[in-house]
Specification:
66% of the residues lie in helices and 6% in strands. The chain is mainly α. Helix 6 runs parallel beside helix 10 and helix 8 crosses helix 9 (141-147).
Length: 161
């Protein structure tokens, strides 16, 4: 448990690592950019919290395959945007699986082994605020790519950082 706690703390301290991630086109970055494009409806290229949270709720519904109102570890790891295929191609399966476990642990606020809808919603709000580095209530493409915890964890796992 102590290792998981330390790993979670390390992941939460990653904004500088996220900023250090390359702007170079990579499969992970390209996928993250596609994901961002499916979130924002704003012509100025930024997503507000409502768009971000609504997108997250759609993801929650698609992850909750048994329609129980919560996501268990199996549902969480079975669902993916496509980062798993990139990790496999890069030979980073284990690192990617570790990143998934860390994200699950972060979002499972009460530690009961499931992410309830309310926990997921809180996580989306928190993740938005953390990524919105200029506090303007909008996530730009760059803030999403360099500050959203999913991008940080999965892209770091894929590149072996």
């Amino acid at each position: 448990m102590r290792i998981l706690t330390a790993t979670c703390a390390l992941l939460l301290a990653l904004p500088s690592a996220g900023l250090a991630q390359s702007d170079e086109a990579t499969p992970g970055r390209d996928l993250a950019e596609l994901i961002f494009g499916s979130i924002e409806d704003n012509p100025n290229g930024a997503a507000d919290m409502g768009e971000f949270v609504n997108f997250g709720q759609d993801i929650f519904v698609s992850m909750d395959s048994d329609k129980s109102g919560s996501i268990d570890p199996g549902e969480f790891t079975d669902w993916d945007f496509g980062f798993n295929f990139i990790a496999e191609d890069e030979g980073q399966d284990r690192a990617y699986q570790t990143a998934q476990k860390i994200l699950f642990a972060i979002w499972d606020h009460d530690g009961d082994g499931e992410i309830a809808r309310q926990e997921y919603h809180k996580s989306m709000v928190w993740d938005f605020r953390r990524a919105d580095t200029d506090d303007d209530a909008f996530l730009t493409r760059e803030e999403f790519l360099s500050g959203y915890v999913v991008n940080l964890a999965y892209r770091a796992a894929i590149t072996g950082l």
